[in-house]
Amino acid sequence: MSDLEALMWVYSTIAQTLGAIVAVVGMLTVYKLDRVGNSIERIFNGIREFLDRHGFGNIRNQLYTMGPKEWQKNYKTTYSKNLKDNPELNTLKA
């Protein structure tokens, strides 16, 4: 085996190893993102159940028709509008 052939084998092995490492890191990333997504969905469902149990049907209906991001955007808009109209509701004043 010549030195050039041996060098080609080394470079090929390095490329395959790096490819395998990238694949494993990608797989772990997708797995972790899936678990985070499931956790968020579980929390969101817990909020829905809580609202259901305590009679906040209007808010619960909004949660069923909107996803977490849409509801959060709607809530922030409504909350900030209420704070402008009723500044005494702001309990987070500095």
In short:
With 94 residues, the protein is mostly helical. The chain has three helices and no strands.
Description:
By secondary structure, the chain is mostly helical. 83% of the residues lie in helices and 0% in strands. Helix 1 (3-53) packs antiparallel against helix 2. The model has no long low-confidence stretch (mean pLDDT 76). It has one domain (3-89).
Task: Give the key terms.
single chain, mainly alpha
Average the pLDDT over all residues and give the rounded result.
Answer: 76
Q: What is the CA-based Rg, rounded?
A: 26 Å
Number of domains: 1
List the uncertain runs.
none
Determine the number of helices (DSSP H or I, runs of at least 4 residues). Answer: 3
In helices, the fraction of residues equals over 70%
Tally the beta strands.
0
Largest β sheet strand count, sense and barrel closure: none
Strand content: under 5%
Shape: rod-shaped
**Helix and strand sequence:** HHH
What structural class should be given to the helix and strand makeup? mainly alpha
Q: Termini, distance in Å?
A: 76 Å
